[in-house]
Each structure stands twice: as C-alpha cells, then as structure tokens.
C-alpha cells in the first residue's frame, strides 16, 4: 500500500507551510542484504543469482518466466549499483537452465516416443528461447546433461562419501515420480482414482505415489537438524519472505529422517551413475541442486569466491529441497549454505490453478507478443507478491499497463517533451527564486506550494526506498512506490498547467522552465529505477531525456541538484530524438486491429 508515504508527504507539506526548510538528501547509499537495521552500506564485491533449473517434461509456463524475471530484476538492480558497466559485469553472475535427468523425464520421453536426450534438447531450447525473448540477462544457461555438471556431481558425491555421510541401506516407502521425492506415510493421503477406488497421492501436491522397496545409498540427513536450526536462527534473512523461514523452522521441529540419494539403475537409467557403482543412479534432486555449484566452477578454486554470495530464487513448492536438503548436503560436503533463499508463490488463472486438464495453461511467449516484452515483465513483477498466489487474466493486464505505463508514465513524458510546451527541445533551466529550498524565506517570485515540496521529498527518497524493497525481495513494492511518485508528478504538472504559461512572458518563463525541469528530473529518476524491470522502455525514456549510458547507474543518482544549490549536468542539454509513444495503449491497439480486419 502507498498510503503511509502519502500521509508522510502531507505531513511534510504542513511542515513546509509552517516555514521549515527541506533537508538535502544524501546520495543514495544502496544497501545490501542483511538483518533489518544492520545492512551493509556498500554492495558486496560479488553477487551470484540463480533461478531453479526447470524440468523439461513440459513446455514453459508463466510461473517459470516469473521465477526468471524475479532473479533478472534482482541481478539488474545489483549491476546498476556497480561503478561502471565492466565492473558490473565482472561482479555479478546469474544462472538459469534445465533439469534433464530423473524418472519424470524418462517417462515423458517414453510417452512421446522419443529418446530422453532428444526430448531434453527440444524442451531445453524452448526455455532458452523464452528467456532470451523476455530479456532475461543470465550469464549462464546450464543443462544437467553437460559434461561439466556430471564432473561436479561426481566430485560432490565423493566429498559426502569421504566424510562418512553416505551408507547403503534398504529403503522402503512412498515415492512420487511427478515430484521426484520420497514421502513418509504422514504425507500421503487417499483420493478417488479413475475407477473411483481410493488411490495414494502426495498430500501436498496431489500427485500419485507408489510404494518403493529397494537398496539405495542414504544420506545421514538426521545429523543436520540442529545445524540447520542454528543457521536459520543466526541468519534471519537467510530465507525471505519471513513466513517461509518460519515454515522451515516448523519442519525442523519434526524428526528429520535420513534421505535416500540414489535409485536402482535398472529402474532409473536416465541420470548420473553413482561413482564406483553402476547399479545405482544418483537421486535427481541431489544431481539438480549441484548445478548451482557447477556454474561457478566447482570443484575448482574459482567457485570459492562466488559461492558465499549466492542468492537462490525459487518457488514455494520446492522450498523443502532448497531450505533443508540442499543446505544439509552443502554442510555435509564442507561448504556453507546459500547466502539468501528468495521464495515466491504461484500464479493462478482466474482463480484456478493452471493445469493441462483444465486447458488454462498460459503460454508466456504469446503474452510477450500480446502485451510487449516490457509490458508483460512489468505486469508479472508489479502484480506478483511473493507471500501469496497471484491471479492472471487478460483484462487485469490491460488495465494495469494502460493506466501505469501508457497513461501515467507515457503521458507525463509526452507532455514534458512536446514541441508545443518545450519548443527548444532542451532540459530547461531551474529557477531557484521560483522554487526556493527554504519556502519560509521565499520572495515574491516564489510559485511552489506545499504539495510541490512534498513531491521533491518523495522522489528524493525514492532510490533508497526502492533499494530497500529489492533487499527485502519486494519488487512489487518498489514498483508501487515508483507508480505513486509518477502519479504525484502528474499532479504537479496538472496543478501548474505549464501549457497555460508563455515562454514570451518574463513572469511566466522562469516558472514554466522550472516546472518542466522538475518533471523531467522526476522522469529521469523513474527511468533509472525502472531499468531492472522494463529495460527497453527505460532505455527509450532515458534516451528521450538525453541521459547517456554512463549516467544511468544508481551510485551517483542525484535528484534535482539545482534545488540544493548544486550544478545540474542536464540543464540546457538537448533532449534526445523523438521516439514515438513510450508505451501504446493496449485497448486501442486491439481496437485498431479489429478495425483493420473489418476494412
């Protein structure tokens, strides 16, 4: 909600009306992750972001794209904090990819009449193409069928074995092939099957389970219950949002049985064999989780400088694997748990879970075509709330994008750069006597009111506010804050109606230039802060303002320096070339298509 900040703006307005001066904001010292109130003021030297690697048993859907866009926005925001493009590239890594082993893949390939490798090649290419088309700026796309990954998994297995954490034993219990996981009796329920008879299913996912009895390698997971509890209690930001951390701690209050980490190769042949024992295939989840190490060069020396900075972005359905099994396996191999685990919820369609049987699975590629790449990125990240499931339907997308991107942001840019209002096509001069820093000492030329000072205060605070929201994995709140300031800026322009002022009037001209200067400064801040979410739209906006590529970082993002008595590098600068509408209204686009079809 934006109400607290609006109320703060009103309080500031009342303070200004009493003659108090507006303090100069410090340059934004953007925080890194850490306990609230004790965050680092400088970014870490490196940052490594990951998405889950996605199963290739089916084509990608919008939930997969949402995971990738969350990680992409976090990584892009982190890069903007680096002092230059080269430094940003060297200091960040971002991986995604596909999980291509396991019984589920083996069965899907058999159903399709394809060799598993061919199915993996086809579907992995679909994920790669989707992420490329959506502007996902990953530095690595890993496939678990790659030789580098096989070597990393075998080395990780050897590390666990050398520490005495693997033993061979008889496993008997329920196995869910759809979820690729073993389940205790307490996690299995009965539901009517096709014939009406009760069938065993996973209580969490609803997928069928079968009774399994075989000799496997088993990991001594039970040894790690207390170490995992200490890790989570000593690192309150390790799992975000907080409700998911509490869920994991609740799980750890229960018994933590040892974990089967292999399957008989006669049953599961599509995977990585256990080193020294070809009769066993390494459990798909152990295999898949090691991808995060493979990408940063494990077991070579390079990975040691990257691993402590790792941030995983995952869906809530795989929380147990990433927050219990994976940290325990890492500790068992002599490595530290991941730095952060960011957890998000799922997407429904008109209130229903996406499923093939309902025919409501949303094709993300079609959405990119229909709403534009930047438009659909903005919708998912603006509407997606990590704590709970979010709903998709077309009318909701159109209403949001038309309101916030086409009308509010695009309309503001068009107003302030139009030839009629800004005939010189420049960043106009700011007049300090029209908009003095200390309103209580204002002279007869002063034109700014309390709401205008509230706007300056809100936009000056915006970069740090946005950074805090990114650190808390609340990208939707960052976009909400930007949208609120866009509305305030439109109100500022509407109040002062610069189209009613004349450049020829010695009384009007200084204030007309000041109104446009303030509005353009606000737009520059908005464009800079939107880069992680809508990179092409933000580039178009900043280019129209004449902001060069080297002036788009967050480290030196100073808002309205002339207001605080400092020079402004943009004042008097020629605006960039006209590039048309920043974002076209979607409803009008559809109307035009219908009209063209009829004619």
Could you give the topology of this structure?
Elements: H1 3-17, E1 47-55, H2 62-80, H3 85-91, E2 92-99, H4 103-112, H5 116-133, E3 140-143, H6 147-162, E4 166-176, E5 181-183, E6 188-192, E7 198-202, E8 210-219, H7 225-234, E9 239-240, H8 242-251, E10 259-260, E11 262-264, E12 273-274, E13 277-282, H9 284-289, H10 291-295, H11 303-306, E14 310-315, H12 319-332, E15 340-344, E16 347-349, E17 352-353, H13 364-371, H14 373-383, E18 390-392, H15 394-417, H16 450-471, H17 475-496, H18 508-530, H19 535-544, H20 586-598
Domain Methionyl/Leucyl tRNA synthetase: 48-416
Pfam families: Anticodon_3, tRNA-synt_1g
InterPro entries: Anticodon_Met (IPR041872), Met-tRNA_synth (IPR014758), Met-tRNA_synth_2 (IPR023457), Methionyl/Leucyl_tRNA_Synth (IPR015413), MetRS_core (IPR033911), Rossmann-like_a/b/a_fold (IPR014729), tRNAsynth_Ia_anticodon-bd (IPR009080)
Give a description of the structure.
The chain has helices spanning 3-17, 62-80, 85-91, 103-112, 116-133, 147-162, 225-234, 242-251, 284-289, 291-295, 303-306, 319-332, 364-371, 373-383, 394-417, 450-471, 475-496, 508-530, 535-544, 586-598, and strands spanning 47-55, 92-99, 140-143, 166-176, 181-183, 188-192, 198-202, 210-219, 239-240, 259-260, 262-264, 273-274, 277-282, 310-315, 340-344, 347-349, 352-353, 390-392. The protein contains 20 helices and 18 strands. It has a 6-stranded parallel β-sheet with strand order 3-2-1-14-15-9, sandwiched between helices. The protein is elongated. Helix 15 packs across helix 17 (475-496), helix 16 (450-471) runs parallel beside helix 18 and helix 17 packs antiparallel against helix 18 (508-530). It is an alpha/beta fold and 599 residues long. Residues 1-20, 26-43 and 593-599 have low confidence and may be disordered. Residues 48-416 form the Methionyl/Leucyl tRNA synthetase domain.
């Amino acid at each position: 909600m934006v109400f607290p900040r609006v109320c703060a703006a009103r309080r500031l307005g009342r303070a200004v009306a009493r003659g108090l001066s507006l303090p100069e904001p410090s340059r934004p010292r953007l925080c890194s992750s850490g306990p609230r109130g004790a965050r680092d003021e400088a970014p870490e030297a490196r940052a490594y972001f990951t998405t889950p690697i996605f199963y290739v048993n089916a084509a990608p859907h919008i939930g997969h794209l949402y995971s990738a866009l969350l990680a992409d926005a976090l990584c892009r925001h982190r890069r903007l904090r680096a002092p230059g493009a080269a430094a940003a590239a060297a200091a960040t890594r971002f991986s995604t990819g596909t999980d291509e082993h396991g019984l589920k893949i083996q069965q899907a390939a058999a159903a399709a009449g394809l060799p598993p490798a061919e199915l993996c090649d086809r579907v992995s290419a679909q994920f790669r193409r989707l992420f490329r088309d959506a502007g996902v700026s990953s530095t690595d796309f890993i496939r678990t069928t790659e030789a580098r990954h096989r070597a990393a998994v075998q080395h990780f297995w050897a590390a666990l074995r050398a520490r005495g954490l693997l033993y061979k034993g008889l496993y008997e219990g329920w196995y869910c092939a759809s979820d690729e996981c073993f389940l205790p009796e307490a996690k299995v329920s009965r539901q009517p099957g096709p014939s009406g008879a009760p069938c065993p299913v996973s209580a969490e996912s609803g997928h069928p389970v079968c009774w399994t009895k075989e000799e496997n390698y088993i990991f001594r997971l039970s040894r790690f219950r207390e170490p995992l509890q200490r890790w989570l209690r000593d690192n309150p930001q390790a799992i975000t949002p907080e409700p998911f951390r509490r869920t994991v701690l609740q799980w750890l209050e229960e018994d933590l049985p040892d974990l089967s980490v292999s399957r008989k190769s006669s049953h599961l042949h599509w995977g990585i064999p256990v080193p020294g024992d070809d009769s066993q295939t390494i459990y798909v989840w152990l295999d898949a989780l090691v991808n995060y190490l493979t990408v940063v060069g494990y077991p070579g020396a390079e990975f040691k400088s990257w691993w402590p900075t790792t941030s995983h972005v995952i869906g809530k359905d795989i929380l147990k694997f990433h927050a219990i099994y994976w940290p325990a396996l890492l500790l068992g191999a002599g490595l530290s748990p991941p730095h952060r685990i960011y957890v998000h919820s799922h997407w429904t369609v008109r209130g229903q879970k996406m499923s093939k049987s309902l025919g409501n699975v949303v094709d993300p590629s079609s959405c990119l075509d229909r709403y534009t790449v930047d438009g659909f990125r903005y919708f998912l990240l603006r509407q997606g709330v990590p704590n709970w499931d979010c709903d998709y339907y077309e009318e909701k997308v159109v209403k949001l994008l038309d309101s916030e991107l086409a009308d509010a942001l695009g309309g503001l840019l068009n107003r302030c750069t139009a030839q009629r209002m800004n005939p010189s096509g420049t960043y106009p001069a700011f007049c300090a006597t029209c908009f003095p820093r200390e309103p209580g000492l204002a002279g007869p030329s002063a034109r700014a009111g309390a709401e205008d000072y509230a706007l300056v205060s809100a936009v000056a605070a915006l970069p740090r506010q946005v950074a805090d929201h990114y650190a808390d994995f609340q990208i939707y709140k960052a976009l909400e804050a930007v949208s609120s300031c866009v509305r305030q800026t439109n109100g500022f322009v509407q109040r002062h109606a610069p189209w009613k002022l004349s450049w020829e009037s010695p009384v009007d001209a200084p204030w007309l230039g000041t109104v446009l200067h303030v509005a353009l400064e606000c737009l520059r801040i908005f464009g800079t802060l939107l880069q992680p979410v809508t990179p092409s739209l933000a580039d178009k906006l900043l280019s129209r303002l004449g902001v060069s590529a080297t002036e788009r970082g967050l480290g030196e993002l100073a808002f309205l320096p002339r207001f605080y008595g400092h020079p402004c590098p943009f004042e008097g600068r020629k605006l960039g070339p006209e590039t048309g509408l920043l974002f076209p209204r979607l409803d009008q686009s559809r109307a035009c298509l219908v009209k063209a079809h009829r004619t």
